[in-house]
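Fill-in record for Trypsin-like peptidase domain-containing protein.
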Amino acid sequence: MKNYLLLIVMLMTVTISAQNPKEDYAQKPMIIADEFKLDESTSHPYTTAKSGKQILYQKEFYSAKASYVKLYFKNFDLAPGDYVEIYSPNNGETKIYGQKGKIIDEQMTMISDFWTQAIFEDKIIVTLYSFGQSDKHYGFDITKVAYGYTSEKLEKILGQKSICNSDNKEPIACYQGTEMFAKGEAVSKLIIGGRSLCTGWLLGCEGNLMTNNHCIGSASAAQNVDVIFNYRKDGCSGSANATSETVATSASFIMTDSGLDFTLLKLPVNPTQKYGYLSLSSVAPAKGDRIYIPQHPGGRRKEISVKSDRDGDTNGFSRVYAVSNSGGQTVRYYADTEGGSSGSPVIKYDSHLVVAIHNTGGCPNGSYGRSDAIIAKIGNRMPNCGVDNGGTPIDDCKTTVNSFPYVQSFENTIGNWTQSTTDDFNWSVQTGATPSRDTGPSAANAGSHYVYMETSSPNYPNKKAILTSPCFDLKGKNTASLSFAYHMYGANTMGSLQLEASIDDGKTWNSIWSKSGNQGNAWNNASVNLASYLGKVVKLRFNGVSGTTWQGDMAIDNFKLSTDSSGGNQYKVTLAITLDNYPEETSWDIKNSAGQVVASGGTYGSEPDGSSISISENLDAGCYSLTFKDSYGDGICCSYGNGSYTLTDQNGQTLASGGNFGASETKNFCVGGARESTETEETVILERTDVAKETLTAAMSLYPNPAINHIQIQLAAKRTTATSYSILDLSGKTVQQGNFEKTIPVEHLKPGLYMIKIHVSGSTHTASFIKK
C-alpha cells in the first residue's frame, strides 16, 4: 500500500511538472562568446602629452575568426580632449570613448565601468590619444575581453531547440513586401554584457524596447546592451547580408516583472521612424489564432516562424495551441524557436498585434507573458502607441528617396520596394532563366538578378502582381526622368504590364507607361519623362496582369531615376570581371562622392567557375569609388583561380583594376572631366617598442577648442578643397554632416567630446573637440 501511494505521488509530481513548463523550459540568455579576464591598464594617474597629439597606449586584441570583440573598461577617466579609439583594421569601423567613459542616455550621463560596443571583426586595436592636458586623471583598466563564437561553434554549442519536427523557420527576407516583414523590422538582436544573446522589439512609438526579464533584469544590464537592427539577410536564398545598425549600446531601465518575464527599457534614441514599432493586443489570444514570430535564433540573422508541421492550421501556418489563465505557460504553440529567441514578440496574423512575449522552450513551446496581463502590469507607464495601435501601414511613405540618381537592379533582393497585399501573387527575384520554357529572360539585364512574374498555374488567367517603389521626392527639381529594362517574351495573349504613378500615397494611380503581348525574346529599354510630377512626392509601381496562358513571364531590371541634380550628361563605363573558382563569394558596388550606391552586382553563384562577365553602367560626371568584396576574405586572385576586374571608360581607358586583395578593396576614379587630388599628406610617425606604428595627420587644425557656437577648420595650404565632413559623438554615431565649410556651426550639439572627420579627395582627417 505504501509503495502504491508513493507511485501516485510520483505520478502527480510528473503531471504537475508537465503542466508547469516554466520550471523545466524557461530559457536563459544564450551564451555566444568566450569571456576572458585581463589585467591591462594605463599608469595611474597617466601622464598626458606635453604638446601636440601623441599615442600613450596601444594594444591589439585578436582571436582568429571571432565573430565580434568587446572589452570591459573599469575606472575610465581621461583628461578633456583625450580619447580612446577602438579601431578595426579589417573594416575600418571605429568607436570612441572619452572623459568619464560611456554615454548611456539623452542627458549625456556617463559611466566609467562599461562594456564597449561590439565590433564585428576578429581583431581590434585600442589606442589612447592625448593632446596635452591635465595630468590628474586616472586613465583606465581593461579587465575583460569577449570574443564572439563563430557560426560553426554556435551550432555545436546551441542549447535546446524548440523544433519538434522539421525546422520551418525562414529568413525574414523571404517575406519582403509583406506586413509580416514590415512588423519584423521593429525586432532587434541584443548582445547583453559581453556574451549573452536575446531578442528585443520596439514597443510603441517613443523608442521603448521590450525583452525578457531573464535577459535583462537590472539597470546595470540595461546599461550594457547592444541593440542591433536590420541584422538579416538581404535576400531569401542568397548569402548577401543587409547593412545592420547598432542604434544603441545602452538603455534606461523602466520596469521589469519576473512572473510575466518582461522588461521595459527606453533607448537613448528613437529609431521608430526607420524601423517602425509594435503594439500589444488588449484582447487575449484564443486557441487556433494564426501567429508568427520574428526572432534572432542562435544569434543568426533575423528569421521568422510562420509555418509549422506540428499542429499547423489547414494551410500549415503556426497557430495558438492552448491558452490558460493560471499557472504555467499562458500561451502555447508549436512555432519553431531556438536559444536566442527569448524576448521575441508573438504576433497575431489577423491584427499584427503582439499577443505574448516568447520565453519558454519545449514542445509545445510558448509564453507566460500574455499581452493583456503585460498591459495591466505596465499600467500608466505604457509608451504612446503601445496598445492596439497597428502603426504605419506598409503602403505609406516609410522610405522616401531624395538623393539622385536612384538605381535599383534587384541584386538578390527587392530592396526598399514592397509587394502589394491586395494583388494575387508576388514578383520574384531570379538569377539565370525563369523555370518555364519559351517564356521569360535567360539572364539579367544588369548584374546577375532581376524581378519577374511567374505566370504558371495558378497565376493565370487575369491574375495581378504589383511591385511598389519607395517614394521619390521631386521637390525643387527642374527635370526628372526614369529608365528601366523590361522583358516580355511568351504567347501573344501573355497579358500586360503597366508602370503607374501616385501622388496621394497610393490612394489613386495613373498609368504612365504600358505594354501588352509578346515583345520578343530580348531585354527592351523604356524611358519615361516625369516632368508632370516635378515639385511633388511620387510613388511608382509595376502592375502586371497575366493573360490566358502560362507563357506570360514578365521581367524588370536596371531601374534608374535621375533628376537635374545628377549633373547632366552621363558617361558609359564598362566593368569586365574574370571570376575565381568561388564566384558565389564575389560582389561589388560603385558609390558616388556622397557615399550612395549607384551601381552594384553579385554575388555570382549562378556563373561558372572562372568565367568572365561584362557589365555596362552610365554615370554622371563626378568622382566615384569602386569596391570589390569577397565574403571568404581571400579576394579573387590568386589562391583559388586567377580572377581580376578592370573598369574602363567609353574610350577604353582603364579607370580601376585589381583582384588580389583580402575581404575587400576600394579604388577611386572620376568620369566626365572631374579630377581627384593625387597629393600625399604630410604625416608624423610615432613609434615605441610596445606600440604599433600609427600615422597621424598634420594637415588640419581646429579652433576654438572648446567650442561654443562654431568651429573653424584650417587645412594645410597645399591641400585641395575638402568635399564634406561628419561629426561623431562618443558612441561613434554620426550626429552632423554636410558639405565642407571653413566655419561649421555646432551650437545645437549637446555639451561633450566629439570627433570631426574632414573628407578630402578620398582621404580623411580626424580631430577631436569639446562642445561647451
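KEY FINDING: The longest helix spans residues 2-19.
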